[in-house]
Amino acid sequence: MAQDSQNIDFLYDFLYVDKQRVNSWFAQMFNEGVLTSFKSTQNATGSFTSDVSGGVPGVAKGTLRSVDGTQEGYERHYNAEWSLPLTLLDALDEHGFIHRNVANAPVGSLVLLSGHMQFTDVEMLQKIWEPAIKIMMQQVKVTHQNKTQLANQKNMMIAFGDVLRAMPPEPQAHIRGDDGLSFWASMRPDSMTVNSSTLALAHGSSLEGTWHALAVLDAKPSSHGGNGIDRISQSDMGDTMAEVLTLVRTVVGRDEVSYAVTPVLIFRQSHSAVTTT
After folding, report:
1. By the 8 A CB rule, do 196 and 242 touch?
2. What is the pLDDT of residue 157?
3. What is the 3-state secondary structure (H, E, C) of 27-60?
4. pLDDT tens-digit series, residues 167-201
5. Contact at 8 Å (CB) between 63 and 53?
6. So what's the pLDDT on residue 153?
7. Number of C-alpha atoms within 13 angstroms, CB side, residue 164?
8. Tell me, what's the pLDDT at 38?
9. How far apart are CA 108 and CA 113, in angstroms?
10. Which ranges of the chain have pLDDT less than 50?
11. Nearest to 217 by CA among 121, 89, 101, 96
C-alpha cells in the first residue's frame, strides 16, 4: 500500500549527524523523550446487504433482508531515526536557541552556519603523506639555483609529516560563510554518513555547493573577542607546553582568524527537478 505523500520542494542531504547530541537535546526539548519509532493504525468498515423473497402462494409474500458487516484493520510502523534531526531543528529554532549572528553569539551557544566547505581527511593524509612527498619531489626538476631551496622544502614537509602522524585521525572541516567569517571543526568519523576517503577522492579538499551546519560555538578568534582565559599553570613546563600546543593548533588545527565549532548536523539542500527548471 502506498504511503501518503506531500509536495516537497527540497530534501535535506545529511553529511554529518552527531546522534548522541541530537538524542540529548531531543530528550531535553520533548518531555516524552527520544522518539525511536511510531505506529499508525487505521480501521476500515464495510457492509453488504442481501434480500431473499418468499412466502406461501395465495396467502402472503414477504422479503427477508440480511445485513452483514466486516471490519479490517492495518498498522504501519515507521523508523523515526531520520525524523529526529529535522524535528529537533524546528524545535530549537521555534524556541530561539539557534543564533544566526555568530559574531554576537556567546561561546557555548548553538549557531547555524552556511557557506562553502573545505574538508581534510587527516587519516588518509597520514597514510599517503610520505609516498606523496616522493612523487611531488620527483616531478620537480632540480637545478643548481633551486637545489638548496628544494632541500629545505623537503625537510620541512618531512617534519610536517612527523607532526601529521601524531595528530588525531579525525577529519577536519573549514567553512567560510557568505559574510566572510571562517569556522574550523573537528569531526567524528562515526557521525559521518559518507566515508571521508570517498569525499577526498571525489572532491579533493573543497566540497562543491552550499553547506549548512548546526554547531556549538566553542571559541572565537582574537579579532572577535576570543582571547581565551589567563593561563592557569605558571610553571616553566606549563609555559612550554602551552606554547607548543598553541603552535600545533595554528599549524594543523584552527588558525588565528577562524571560529572553533563542534558540528552537530552538516547538510545541504537537494532541490526537486520542478524547482530547478
Report:
1. no
2. 85
3. HHHCCCCCCCEEEEEEEEEEEEEEEEEEEECCCE
4. 889 999 999 988 889 999 999 999 999 988 888 88
5. yes
6. 84
7. 19
8. 56
9. 15
10. 1-5, 51-64
11. 101
Phi, psi of 266 (to 5 degrees): -130, 125
Give the CA radius of gyration of the chain.
Answer: 31
- Encode 200-219: b = buried (16+ Cβ within 10 Å), e = exposed: beeeeeebeeebbbbbbbbe
State the pLDDT at residue 270.
83
Reduced to 3 states (helix: H, G, I; strand: E, B; else coil), residue 262 is: strand
The answer to whether 186 and 168 have CB atoms below 8 angstroms apart is yes
Pick from 124, 237, 137, 118: which is nearest to 189 by CA? Answer: 124
In this prediction, residue 112 carries a pLDDT of 95
pTM: 0.72
pLDDT value of position 171: 93
Contact 38, 84 (CB under 8 A): no
DSSP lists the bridge partners of residue 55 as: 61
Distance CA 176, CA 249 (A): 19
Q: Is 164 exposed, middle or buried (0-12, 13-18, 19+ CB in 10 A)?
A: middle
